[in-house]
Amino acid sequence: MERIIKVTGKGKISVKPDLIRLLINLEDKRETYEETVEQSTLQLEMLRDCFAKLGFERADLKTINFNVNTEYESYQDENRAWKQKFIGYKFVHAMMLEFDADNKRLGEVLYALAHAPVCPEFRINYTVKDMEAAKNKLLAKAVADSKEKAKVLAEAAGVALGDIVKIDYSWGELEIFSAPVEYSVRSASDAEMDSYSMDIEPDDIDVTDTVTVVWEIG
Fold first, then answer.
1. Residue 202: its pLDDT value, please?
2. I need a labelling partner for 82 at 20 to 30 A (CA). Which of 33, 151, 195, 215 fits?
3. In terms of Cα–Cα distance, which of 53, 86, 58, 93 is closest to 70?
């Protein structure tokens, strides 16, 4: 019978965010499919124009998801039965704009959004540029933690810790971000400011992950 010990190690790191990810959502309704698609293109170009004036490339505004769906509304007919009536089409365009975590740059971007001819919804996330380096450091810490725990358990049980038999890791997508800012374009516009002075110092982002290691014992 194979003699093994299975230990799950936990890695934890704190990373300083150095990248802002602006998640932008545009949506609108029109009566026909053609009008809806045309309106989505028009509003996208308006946003690109705003960011281009700040020095961004037009391709920097990236699409995450885009869809056009039919829209219906409920009504009661003369017999008071509820029915659905087609009212048109609705597009939803989710986009992302990334730039260095700099308060001056953020203030320029928010000012441009507040004075744009369209009024999208958006969220501000802080993340890191070198995601792979952070993930690798996290995994190394998780494996080291597993090894340390395995040594303690083996010593307590009076057995010798041998070679690694297997390492189990989910390889799922690890998200490293924080969202310390709640902001509204409309409230900023109502304030009638000439520019936005931002003073945001995001906290380090705590990230954890686990790795399960199977060891031989003798």
1. 87
2. 33
3. 86
Could you tell me the two tokens for 193?
């400011």
Contacts of 69 (CB under 8 A, 6+ apart): 89, 90, 92
What CA–CA distance (Å, rounded) separates 7 from 144? 11
Residue 150, Cβ neighbours under 10 Å: how many?
Answer: 21
pLDDT for 183 equals: 58
What are the phi and psi torsion angles at 40 (to 5°)? -65, -40
How would you class 111 by CB atoms within 10 Å of its CB: exposed for 0-12, middle for 13-18, buried for 19 or more? buried
Query: Which residue, 171, 138, 179, 174, is CA-closest to 17?
Result: 179
Give the pLDDT means over successive 10-residue stretches in the chain (218 positions).
90 95 96 97 96 96 97 92 95 97 93 91 94 93 96 94 92 80 51 66 91 93
Amino acid in position 60: D
55: left (phi over 0), alpha (psi -120 to 50) or beta: left
Q: Which pLDDT score, from 0 to 100, does residue 195 have? A: 61
Q: Which residues contact 133 (CB under 8 A, 6 or more apart)?
A: none
Token pair of 140 as six digits: 């190394």
- Residue 178: how many CB atoms within 10 A of its CB? 16
Structure tokens at 129: 């540029």
